[in-house]
Amino acid sequence: MSKLIGLFEAGALVLVSFIFACLYRAYRGPTAADRVVAVNVIGTKAVMLLVLVSAFSQEDFFLDVALVYALISFLATVCLSRLVLIQKRRWGEWQ
Amino acid sequence: MMSLLIALLLGSGLFFSFAGTVGLLRLPDVYCRLHATTKCDTLGAGLVLLAVMISGRPLSQIVKLLLILIFIWVANPTAAHILARAAYSAGTPQVANTSLLKEDTPCSL
């Protein structure tokens, strides 16, 4: 069992490095849609990370946090893509 | 035996997640990046959650993990579709030799 916990901890660390790599696209991305893609990917990876944290810390409530995070991440992507759609009408060229 | 299976599922989930990250960083425009990240991240999340699910959790947590998995599998492609449609309607530039119809009417969201 402790071997499994070490496995999940290592997986969580690897996932954190992937999240930081995705953050570069959110910083750099030439258009606004690129940033929204990066935010969406980071949301999915954060849900995976929360599930792994719940696996190696043997805590139940992290799964509730992960479920709510998935719901809010989907809502955020929908609202931000609405923003991508109306940005040119409202503010002209905007990134 | 079980821990070997868990390690295999977790490793392949992290591999697909890595592939999605590389696609997000290296591909040339928004649509290619969406194509890479959506598939790879959805599959990677599924494999990682499956690995946690079979690692001897109580039934209540397995049900919660199943709920998260089903929601991700429904919501992630939907979000990518909405985002691609919004980016196309807003006229986000494509790479030079894309063979998408230029005269295709952008739909309203």
Describe the structure in your own words:
The complex is a heterodimer of chains A (95) and B (109). Chain A is 88% helix and 0% strand. Chain A is mostly helical. Chain A has one domain. In chain A, helix 1 packs antiparallel against helix 2 (32-57) and helix 2 runs antiparallel to helix 3. The longest helix of chain A is centred in the C-terminal third of the chain and has 31 residues, at 61-91. Chain A is elongated. The mean pLDDT of chain A is 89. Chain B is built from 3 helices and no strands. In chain B, helix 2 (30-53) packs antiparallel against helix 3 (59-89). Chain B is elongated and about 50 Å long.
Question: What is the element layout, followed by pairings?
Answer:
The complex is a heterodimer of chains A (95) and B (109).
Chain A: H1 2-28, H2 32-57, H3 61-91
Helix pairs in contact in A: 1-2, 2-3
Chain B: H1 2-26, H2 30-53, H3 59-89
Helix pairs in contact in B: 1-2, 2-3
Record keyword descriptors for this entry.
A: 95 residues, mainly alpha, 3 helices, 88% helix, B: 109 residues
Largest sheet of chain B: none
Q: How much β-strand is present in the residues of chain A?
A: under 5%
Helix-strand pattern of chain B: HHH
General form of chain A:
elongated
Tally of alpha and pi helices of chain A: 3
The chain-level structural class of chain B is mainly alpha
Helix/sheet category of chain A = mainly alpha
Helix and strand run of chain A = HHH
Q: Please tell me how large the radius of gyration of chain B is.
A: 18 Å
Which whole number gives the mean pLDDT of chain B? 88
Helical fraction of chain B:
over 70%
- End-to-end Cα distance of chain B, whole Å, is 50 Å
- How many individual domains of chain B? 1
Oligomer: heterodimer
- Taking pLDDT < 50 over at least 5 consecutive residues as the criterion, the unreliable ranges of chain A are none
Mean pLDDT across every amino acid position of chain A: 89
| Low-pLDDT sequence parts of chain B | none
Shape of chain B: elongated
CA-based gyration radius of chain A: 16 Å
